[in-house]
Specification:
This protein is mainly α and 180 residues long. Helix content is 77%, strand content 0%. The relative contact order is 0.07.
């Protein structure tokens, strides 16, 4: 393997970094080119593994932010497919959880609230298993569950989810944090 050739991990990471910066600049087409090139290089050198799933996930979030929902779902499907194939190690559940969040967003946009609720509840379970009850990722997941429960008129359960998020956030965000 030529370490500094086209399959160099450094080159792939650099393309990902360029994609992230382009995304922050709202240059979605440019970001897509960088992520796609990183994915192409990675797949040719390492195949479908967790890193490939991460790049597919970045492409999915990018497409969702650019309002290209069908493309986003295709990338999220591929990321989730890869995650389900690889053995369960640290990080994989987060990738699956993030893909489920994309599916939930799409379902919520299409007013398929029961489906969105199902996806965010699965996402919460994965995040709880990975991070434990006291992590800010779980707080965000509880907020999303609360919103989904609200949409299906399960108000008591929505309030309970929001309260769990508040408890976690009050532990992990300092009292002097702006906006608290």
């Amino acid at each position: 393997k030529n370490y500094y050739g086209n399959d160099s991990p450094h080159l792939i990471e650099n393309y990902i970094s360029c994609g992230k910066v382009s995304e922050q600049l709202a240059s979605y087409d440019e970001a897509e080119k960088f992520y796609s090139r990183a994915l192409e290089l990675h797949l040719s050198s390492a195949g479908e593994n967790l890193k490939a799933a991460q790049i597919y996930k970045r492409l999915a979030f990018l497409q969702f932010d650019a309002h290209k929902n069908e493309k986003a779902l295709g990338f999220a499907d591929k990321a989730l497919e890869i995650c389900s194939k690889v053995s369960h190690k640290a990080g994989e559940d987060k990738q699956c959880a993030d893909c489920l969040e994309i599916f939930a967003r799409k379902a919520r946009e299409e007013k398929r609230y029961e489906e969105a609720l199902e996806d965010v509840e699965k996402m919460l379970a994965l995040k709880l298993a990975r991070f434990g009850e006291s992590h800010h990722e779980c707080a965000i997941a509880y907020i999303l569950v609360g919103r989904a429960k609200q949409k299906v008129q399960q108000y008591d359960q929505a309030l309970a989810a929001y309260r769990k998020a508040n408890v976690i956030l009050s532990r992990v965000i300092p009292d002097d944090h702006y906006g608290m």
